[in-house]
Amino acid sequence: MEPLIIITLVFTIAFAFGIGSNDETMATTVGTGGLRLKYAVILAAILATVGALFLSAGVAKSIGTGLLNSDSIDLIKYQGWIMLSVLIAVSAWLILASKIGAPVSGTHSVVGAIFGVGFCSPLLGSDFLSAIKWSGLTKVVLGWILSPILGLGCSLVISLLVKYLVRRRIKGLDGMENVERIMLIALVCLVSLNQVNRAGNDAGNALGVFYALFDTGEINSPMLNTMLFIGSASIGLGLFIVGRSLLKSVGKNIIEIRPSDAICIESSVLIVLILSNTFGFPISGSHVLIFAIIGLALIKGEKVDKKSLKKIALSWGITFPVAAVFCAGILSLLLVLTGL
Amino acid sequence: MGKKTKEKKLQNEEINQILDVMKNSAKDLRKLIDVVCNKNPADDYKADGLIESVITAEKKVDRLKEDFIEKLFKKKGFLPTFQKMDNLRIVEKLDKIEDNMEVVARFFQIYDYNFPQEIKDSINLLGGEVTDVITALTETVFWLYKDFSKALEMTVKVQDERREAREKQWDLMEQLFTLDIRGKDMFMINNMIRILMKVVDASEEFSDELNTLALKYLFLD
Questions:
Q1: Which of B129, B110, B124 is nearest to B38 (CA)?
Q2: Measured between alpha carbons, how far is B123 from A164 in angstroms, rounded to an integer?
Q3: d(CA A136, CA A62)
Q4: ipTM of the complex, rounded to two decimals
Q5: Fewest CB within 10 A of the end CB: N or C in chain B?
Q6: Does B111 contact chain A (CB < 8 Å)?
Q7: Which residues 30-49 of chain A have a CB within 8 Å of chain B?
């Protein structure tokens, strides 16, 4: 096996680790205090591993190389290096963002990194404008617009329904406690389902690399299965090792969340994800979740923690440029070092 | 257990018990004042028993409060922080009122005095009002857990009872100042009125907080 393939495999595992570390699905459950952080992290890690292992095959993606213009860049010659640069850049950014507790979009990071490849187009025998398939970028722009609208809209509707159909009918503190107890059980079930689903979906980005290498004959079937297992476990491991700060930051810092609130948020996320999968909207799960929390806060008339929101908004804003700059730097370095 | 019996109980056993203990304690205090006002040497043992009962009740409420706090923070967190804090405050305030009742009991333990006939009825009436205020307050707490609207109604009742108690206090004071008694006794009776009214005032103050809580939960979200 070529050294480049081995390095690519290693960084794909790192990418999977990064995806896991930036998975904030369990955040709302942690926010309610219904599951302690350590148990939430363990449960999320197990569910994410299961989801990645069994649900990712159908959604395996080619980490954005479809955004590059093959007429302009010799992808046969450079694809391996491009893929490696994207993997390194995106993994580094995802892990860094998770460490500071910022939920960022994996897809946006990948597209940003591919945009960074465009910066290196002179080294790839092309030019910036023709290297990128510009139509592909509309996906990111659409995602920026659709995720907040859908997340906020859906959360506003569900929160209103819960307010008038459930909360307004509660009579006393005992009734409130009973409702929240039932909601907590429903929440854990819903979030577990979301976790398996989301991990399976997100894992497609990372594990797709293994399928691509299998398709080109670089790795055989037993090797593919081993790598899929290691990759899936890395997602769980990323969530377990780095993900806790993100879960805490999203779950506890923005507003105070009760199980009934978390149900509103999680059902909004689930509905939007189902809609996006059905109609092919390019949305970001992280963005939907944050805007669902904002929608809920609006209905409850509660103030959101502006400091946390600013941090999240900033991380969203810089995801694209940071991934692009990271990737451009890494690719340039690799191309210079290998003399390609 | 029938549905009706279940309705009469709160989910939290400690709060249930605290309310029961307080209601009984208020009744004991009422009986104690009655026994003291109608002083009869043969009834001394009754007064001692009632004093002991109120003091024991205070200790019991203390223990229940500790158990409650331990449970509250150990419990899985489906209760949001503000609700936990409100629960904590409710129990702490109930404990404070029970402490005030204990002070009244201890007062009668050290002040063995035969009240003048002219003010006995008024003292009895004031004692009755103190019991009524505490009973209304425990009902308010009960309804806060069962029905916020009823809790709001009950807070109005506490305020009415407190107003009555205040009237009785001034009636008693008026009568007291017309009496020709020793300065020490005047001071002690005045003190007794003050500590009885402290129970009433603490109850009213807590009832105001319960009113705010009931409104908060009624219009929460």
A1: B124
A2: 51
A3: 13
A4: 0.81
A5: N
A6: no
A7: 32-34
